[in-house]
Amino acid sequence: MSDSALVVGGTRFIGRHVVDDLLENGYEVTIFNRGNHENPFAENDRVSRVEGDRTNREDLERARDEAEPNIVVDCVAYKPKEVEEAVDVFADVDGYVYISSGSAYGNEEIPKREGVTELCDCTAEQAEDDSAESYGPRKAEGDRVIFEAAENGVNATSVRPCIVYGPHDYTERLDYWLERVDTYDRVIVPGDGTNIWHRAYVEDVASALRIVAESGEPGEAYNVGDQRLVTLEEMLEVIADAADTEIEVVHAGERELAAADLEPTDFILYRPYPHVLDTNKLASLGWESTPVDEAMRRTMKEHRESDRDGAEHDPGRDAEERVLGVLDTI
């Protein structure tokens, strides 16, 4: 008899890849969600679906009872109280894993290490908030719920991804850069192109969640990110290779960007201070990451097949052209 897994979420980005990974590793899978998004596994007889609201305890219990899971992967716990409910409802499973975030770290250190780098504080108001500003504190408080549950005998663990990219990414953060490289031969990069914001390929995040659910130490958190870090400019070079094209990377400092009323932070995935996660703890469980070149080839292929263009992150090509005009006169 196959092991059973319950995925809370399971139809969009990370959750979709978690289901694929679990199926590839012999699990029978149940997904639990509200049904607000198309179910890519509707025709797969190894994937069952329970409809419900994860904030409703009775719905969570029904999903547990129907799936009878060995492991649970929780993709949509955004508030500490949701984690509290989950570790209680799933207290008897072999492994419950909560998706936290690299944003849970409260200190800017290089690299950020589990159990060493301090986590964000979380006020009562932040714990109930839905804003982007409270995201890190809420994730950190969810981690603390995991730690306490493990002390009470629950096989609960946490995985902290950095910026996740790959096929079916509805955030479209990387799609902006994929579209730029695929469309133009000159691409503006803010600053000198050497800034680093650690990224994690989504299939690797999915395998990390399964491995931690199976083999992680209760009460522990595990960082996940590409084992080869690339700068923003190196990322564009990797994208260009994946697109089989050539681009000119044009550096623009604050003064040049200001000519078009732009700032470096108007460009998605730019970060003034490096964000780097130590992934050795996860690797000690046998996890490996996909080579960045291969990950980007898969990502570009799906991007071209999709209708995503990252337009919501676009600072405006007209503005960029003004910056290029300034740079060309220097």
From TrEMBL:
Compositionally biased region (Basic and acidic residues): 298-323
Ranges where the NAD-dependent epimerase/dehydratase domain occurs: 5-225
Listed Pfam families: Epimerase (PF01370)
Region annotated Disordered, chain positions: 298-330
UniProt cross-references to InterPro entries, sorted A to Z: Epimerase_deHydtase, NAD(P)-bd_dom_sf
Superkingdom per UniProt: Archaea
Similarity comment: family membership: Belongs to the NAD(P)-dependent epimerase/dehydratase family.
Protein name: Epimerase
Lineage: Archaea, Methanobacteriati, Methanobacteriota, Stenosarchaea group, Halobacteria
